[in-house]
Amino acid sequence: AQSVTQLGSHVSVSEGALVLLRCNYSSSVPPYLFWYVQYPNQGLQLLLKYTSAATLVKGINGFEAEFKKSETSFHLTKPSAHMSDAAEYFCAVRSVYSGGGADGLTFGKGTHLIIQP
Amino acid sequence: SAVISQKPSRDICQRGTSLTIQCQVDSQVTMMFWYRQQPGQSLTLIATANQGSEATYESGFVIDKFPISRPNLTFSTLTVSNMSPEDSSIYLCSVRGRRNQETQYFGPGTRLLVL
Fold first, then answer.
1. Residue A100, CB half-sphere, CA atoms under 13 Å: how many?
2. Are B45 and A104 an interchain contact pair (Cβ–Cβ within 8 Å)?
3. pLDDT digit string (tens) for B31-80?
């Protein structure tokens, strides 16, 4: 079984400040990890993914995340927030293995990022 | 990445009726999934749509309520049957590609309101 915990349902930062969205996962098998962004009234867009290669992954729009196995974490960061970053962010986990009902993603509850001018 | 379209994009339905949502992908994909996002909530996997066989449902979801078809590698439908206001949600189709099997891509979603 897998689970994802996103600390903070709402995070507010000032424009130009560091963005840090926290994600911790639980998985009994090696995981693939993902961050998705959802803008109002839109579907989900993949920001970045960890798939067993480099532990520091870079995504779109200046976001990056670091996989830390010892901490079971995959926190999302961006050095300087922009107003356009305001959205809902979801962390998700999947097993590296396929089949046996393990093919779908398990999502965290999401973090709403608010950017203050 | 795969380009996914869904029809309808939104609908308002009366309780007791059924709605069929279509998902079309621009390329052949190995796996297709259906997710539900209830208002203000995260995404929950409903089922995996299997080509040529019955869908695999997650705990809490049953075929009688959410029948799924997948006649080929680019198309699937999800029916929400005998709807109640609790079924008001966004329903999202998702796929994993043949080339990039690590990543799941999502359609734009179908926004359903049941009165």
1. 6
2. yes
3. 899 999 998 888 999 999 988 888 999 999 999 999 999 999 999 999 99
Burial class (CB in 10 A: 0-12, 13-18, 19+), A108: buried
Q: B6-37: per-residue pLDDT in tens?
A: 999 999 999 999 999 999 999 988 889 999 99
Tell me which residue has tokens 């043949």.
Answer: B98
Q: Phi and psi dihedrals of B71, rounded to 5?
A: -75, -20
Nearest to B109 among A43, A51, A105 (CB): A43
Of residues B33, B41, B108, nearest to A104 (C-beta): B33
Cα Rg, chain A, nearest whole Å: 14
Q: Which residue of A has its CA nearest to B56?
A: A101
Q: How far apart are CA B61 and CA B22, in angstroms?
A: 19
Is residue B78 within 8 A of residue B24, CB to CB? The reply is no
